[in-house]
Amino acid sequence: MKRIRLGFANLQVEFVDRESALRLTEEWARRGTGLPKVVYGPEGCGKTAWLLQSVELLKDYGFEVIYVNPLNKVAIAEIGITSLREEFTKLVRGAISQNALGRLTWLAFDMAKELIRATRGRVAILADDVFQVIGVKESAMYVKALLNLIEYPPERYERIVTIAATSEGMSLHEIGRHSWSDTAPMWNMGREGFEQLYEQIPGNKPDFDHAWRLTGGNPRTLERLYERDWNTDEAINSLIKEKGLSHAFIRRWRDHLKEAINDPDYLWFNAPEELINELVERNLIVYFLLERRQGLWIDQPPPERDLELGIGRYVAWQSPLHREAVKMALESVRP
User: Fold this and answer.
1) What was the pLDDT predicted at 214?
2) Residue spans per domain, the chain
3) Which of 158, 182, 298, 318 could form a disulfide with 42 if both were Cys (CB 3.0 to 4.6 A apart)?
4) Helix and strand numbers, DSSP H then E, in the chain
């Protein structure tokens, strides 16, 4: 399988690690997915990189592959029928020009249906960060549509793979109310794989242990620091603005947030549901971490507890930098 190269700030880096996740893709390629696979995890943990590498893997297994990421305005059609590929490209360009990003999500679905009709072969649809674009209610509808594609296809097919990946936590609650999918979490990269990524970054940089403590293995956090010439305060301040950590928000939840900085599991046992929903919606925490058994996770699970990285038994900050953003916001607001 060809290893893809990915944009990282203004660099191109080679895909590394995620061997367990790719073995899962291989398993799904051999057997198909009886239910849509919904993969969730911290923003920037590497879900997109894994999906893009999975495009290459699925091509090697003879699949017609549709990949869509409306947030990044990207749609890929690795399909053999020229007329369908050209039609899809035309429709995608039209949707992007009109900024109709939600339409991209359904264009991918419609094209998968057409491929089943045309080929009756092996078809894969990989939907990346679509839930943030189409919203909570429509996310459940989309997963149900993927299930219908598997169970009630327009024609018989040889095999189908459907994967949707997201960092948007509120949609998972709605999707989880139904039995329309298999959900599984992905965590940030393991230390060894993350070091392979770190080594591809040129120039002066902090020692690896320091970079690990700031990022917890989150590639996007590493990219954020690199783009800012490793200026930690600047990176934290940008995250405070991005996450809307206003004075009003901090004042309202000060006491709970101070406790959660030291131990995120405080949120599991003591915090009000409204605060949990706010933190999940802002992609600051991952709530309700599963047991650390390999079969429950896409790739390596996080440690059982690592308070230095902001990981508890049940709750974790999405990265140490996310925790530091809340900490700095707390320090900037007077009681």
Assistant:
1) 97
2) 5-185, 191-332
3) 318
4) 15, 10
Q: How far is CA 187 from the centre of its chain?
A: 9
Q: Which fold does the domain 5-185 belong to in CATH?
A: Rossmann fold (3.40.50)
Label residue 172 by pLDDT band (50, 70, 90): confident
Dmax (CA) for the chain in angstroms is 65
**What is the reported pTM?**
0.95
CA–CA separation, 12 and 43 (whole Å): 20
Residue type, 328: M
Cα–chain center distance at 89: 24
pLDDT (tens digit per residue) in 21-54: 999 999 999 999 999 999 999 999 999 999 999 9
For residue 283, CA distances in Å to 113, 197, 226, 294, 300 come to 33, 23, 21, 24, 21
Q: How far is CA 333 from CA 138, 248, 253, 320, in A?
A: 38, 9, 12, 20
Average pLDDT over residues 226-249: 97
- At residue 95, φ and ψ (nearest 5 deg) are -65, -40
Looking at residue 15, the DSSP 8-state letter turns out to be -
Residues 169 and 192: beta-carbon distance below 8 Å? no
Pair 165, 128: CB distance under 8 Å = yes
Which pLDDT score is estimated for 169?
Answer: 79
Q: Which residues contact 87 (CB under 8 A, 6 or more apart)?
A: none
